[in-house]
Amino acid sequence: METKELKAIDANEKKKIVKLNQSSILPGSVRIKVSTLVAEVIPQDEVLPEIVINEDIEEVEEVEEAMAAAIDVEGKSKEELAAMLEEIVQEPDVAKIKDQVTAIRVRFMKLSKEDLDKEMETYIEGGGDRESYQHVMDDAERRFNAAFGIFKSNRARQNELMDAQKLENLEQKKAILEELKQLIASEETLKKTYDDFRALQEKWKSIGQVPATENANLWNTYHFLVEKFFDKVNINRELRDLDMKKNLDAKIALCERAEELLNETSMSRAFKELQKLHEEWKEIGPVPQDKKDEIWERFKAATDKINAIRREHYAQIQEEQNANLATKTALCEKAEELLAEELTSINAWQKKSTEFSELFKVWRTVGPAAKKPNEEIWARFKGAMDAFFAKKKAFFASLKDRQSENLERKINLCIEAEALQESTEWKKATEQFKRIQEEWKTIGPVPKRHADKIWKRFRAACDTFFNRKAEHFGGLKEEEAANLAAKQALIEEIKNYELKPNRNENMEAIKAFQKRWIEIGHVPMKHKDSINAEYRQAVDALFDRMRSNQNEISTNEYREMMEVMREDPEGGEKFRKERNTLATRIQKLRDEIAVLENNIGFFSNSKNSELMRAEYEKKINKAKNDLKVLEAKLKIIND
Q1: Angle formed at CA 602 by CA 598 and CA 605, multiple of 5 degrees
Q2: What is the pLDDT of residue 4?
């Protein structure tokens, strides 16, 4: 079949093309026409459907393909998986075992992550922090890593061999291109030329992959020369139609295989198989013109359906990833709220640490987002967690310093209490112990390992003193009760005392009462005030009976009475009260005398006025006499 481009080239140009320089695949001037000529082999309307490759999707597909591998890893332990891997990696051909190794590795990494999360959670709940945690590999992890290292070494070695093989394949295909050019220029018979051509085609197909950078140009050149061969050697239409029919059968088979992929449950496997089918499609030559559009539309329809299913599949994955991202964003915001709170107590830190642990547990149940956002949101969440535990670490570091200071202060209080525990100055020591105990309450916690020991030491010193005090004062209760009875009897004696005619005898009796009262010891504290008040009332009553009229008491008697009162250890208040009373009465008499002397001047020289005047003078004289007595008594007190 002649192409539109070849029709435009004259006979001389065709002759030049046939005589291509055998030392070069294609000169630059000829390569300009390649795209046009190839367009006849694969027309412009037969452009392969777009196959979009996405990094995130590839990552998901790799996991899906691994999980679908022909090996059962579900329910296996890490030890069993390590043993399986050790056996499988003995196969040197990594292509045969790649899917099985991937399935084992996915399952093993999942179990390892679960174990690591549990270890981390236990370590954090025990008071540790993420930064200081160090994972120690178990035997299963070491065996797994060793076996996987063998696989990686074999894979690296096989990749090197594959790269070398691709370079060798490239040279072989370049050699075939040179042979095609020679075949195009050959003058051999049609049968031999066609047989050689078919042999070169089969040889071309049998050669494996070449480096990706050379593939497009190599493929274009090959189809250009194939087309030139059909045009130059003028193969008869029947032979060409036969070849096109074979091509049609091959493409029908590809369509059927593509349509079977619609039932494939693994989307990643279906997509990779579809890519292989597209590569094979490009290797097959042209088909009859009347079937070209039909067969292409059939293949394109299957491709479009697979692509549509694939897009729907990954749209659903993307929707799930977006929902996961929203959930993880909310968890980040909650973590940042917890981080912003100001915590000042151990309980508060422990409570917030528990809340962070709960957030982390929830985080682990949420599936992944798209690759890049997932990395960013994890960095955000991890940043909040790291910042929180850094603040917690700093808080407890400062807390340790404060606890050490508190321990030193409590040790000093223990020393002070121990110095007082044998004291017999009960009142003074008791006040000091109360002060020490109050100060102890204001001191914060000490390091946990010292708390019980320092408290027992302090408590022992306090108990020693107060037990001694209780023992000491326990023996005084009976004595105090007897003293109370003795004082009550003395009060009754004072109340029943019969006054003697001789005032001195009465004063001596009062002194004797006071002496006996003082000689009687302490009474129970709860009765002290009441018994003292009762005693004062009895003594005061006795004094009142002794002086029915204070004006009749001589100065000497008053002086004796004041001396008795002064000797009374509890008579100070009574003494001050007596002085104030005298001062008040003296001032009142002075005011009264001044008023009477002022009023007496108003009386005239009449009989009635003389009587009134004499009455006033009598009152004035009496007041002045009383004033002298009171002033004398006040002088005694002041002296």
Answers
A1: 135
A2: 32
Residues 538, 582, single domain; the answer is no
Rounded Cα distance, 26 and 180, in Å = 12
Task: Give 309-338 pLDDT, tens digit per residue.
Answer: 888 888 888 888 899 989 989 989 888 888
Number of domains in the chain: 4
Question: For residues 537 and 484, is the Cβ–Cβ distance under 8 A?
Answer: no
- Residue 264 has phi, psi (to 5 degrees) of -70, 130
- Report the C-alpha gap between 138 and 119 in whole angstroms: 12
Give residue-wise pLDDT tens across range 137-156.
Answer: 889 889 999 999 999 898 88
Whose tokens are 């089918």? That residue is 277
Domain-located, residue 320: no
Domain that holds residue 451: 400-474
Query: Which pLDDT does position 202 carry in this prediction?
Result: 87
135 with 211, same domain: the answer is: yes
- Token readout for 149 is 């290292």
* Residue 379 within any structural domain of the chain: no
Give me 436's structure tokens. Answer: 């020490």
| Both structure tokens of 445 | 């916690």
b/e 107-144 (16+ beta carbons within 10 angstroms → b): bbeebbeeeeeeebeebbeeeebbeeeeeeeeebbebb
Distances (CA, A) of 273 to 63, 236, 373: 17, 36, 30
Which of 340, 110, 113 lies closest to 102, judged by CA?
A: 110
**Residue 228 contacts residue 17 (beta carbons within 8 Å):** yes
Q: Does 189 reside within a domain?
A: yes
> What confidence tier does 22 reach under pLDDT thresholds 50, 70, 90?
very low
Q: Is 127 left (phi over 0), alpha (psi -120 to 50) or beta?
A: left
- CA dist 301 and 297 (Å) reads 6
Whole-model pTM: value is 0.38
Residue 130 lies in a domain: yes
